[in-house]
């Protein structure tokens, strides 16, 4: 089910939402010249890391191949950080909604999780 087109679309939307959440956190928690730097810099760094450290055989190229368990930890960490970011900027309901959708996504991605753990 993890490779079902609807689940893949949900995963993509979660990735975009996570980057937006990190950007909002950077904007809300800083001032002056640091505000735009963090608001744009944090999501860019996260996106570059997301695209760089990949498991061979997962969709897309793997510029830096990592074991599946490390990729899974990275993904869960990024989504957890995004959830915390929303909570930290007082978007508590959004944080709960986002976190719940992430959990549901990973429940429906159990085949991918097992695949990652075997890599």
UniProtKB/TrEMBL annotation:
<feature type="transmembrane region" description="Helical">
    <location>
        <begin position="87"/>
        <end position="108"/>
    </location>
</feature>
<feature type="transmembrane region" description="Helical">
    <location>
        <begin position="60"/>
        <end position="81"/>
    </location>
</feature>
<feature type="transmembrane region" description="Helical">
    <location>
        <begin position="9"/>
        <end position="27"/>
    </location>
</feature>
<keyword id="KW-1133">Transmembrane helix</keyword>
<keyword id="KW-0812">Transmembrane</keyword>
<dbReference type="Pfam" id="PF10823">
    <property type="entry name" value="DUF2568"/>
</dbReference>
<keyword id="KW-0472">Membrane</keyword>
<feature type="transmembrane region" description="Helical">
    <location>
        <begin position="33"/>
        <end position="53"/>
    </location>
</feature>
<dbReference type="InterPro" id="IPR021214">
    <property type="entry name" value="DUF2568"/>
</dbReference>
<protein>
    <recommendedName>
        <fullName>DUF2568 domain-containing protein</fullName>
    </recommendedName>
</protein>
């Amino acid at each position: 089910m993890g490779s079902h087109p609807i689940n893949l679309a949900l995963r993509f939307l979660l990735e975009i939402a996570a980057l937006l959440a990190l950007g909002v956190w950077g904007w809300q928690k800083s001032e002056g010249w640091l505000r735009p730097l963090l608001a744009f810099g944090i999501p860019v760094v996260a996106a570059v890391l997301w695209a760089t450290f990949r498991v061979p055989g997962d969709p897309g190229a793997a510029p830096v191949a990592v074991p599946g368990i490390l990729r899974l930890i990275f993904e869960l960490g990024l989504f957890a950080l995004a959830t915390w970011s929303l909570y930290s900027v007082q978007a508590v309901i959004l944080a709960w909604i986002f976190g719940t959708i992430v959990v549901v996504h990973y429940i429906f991605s159990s085949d991918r999780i097992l695949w990652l753990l075997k890599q």
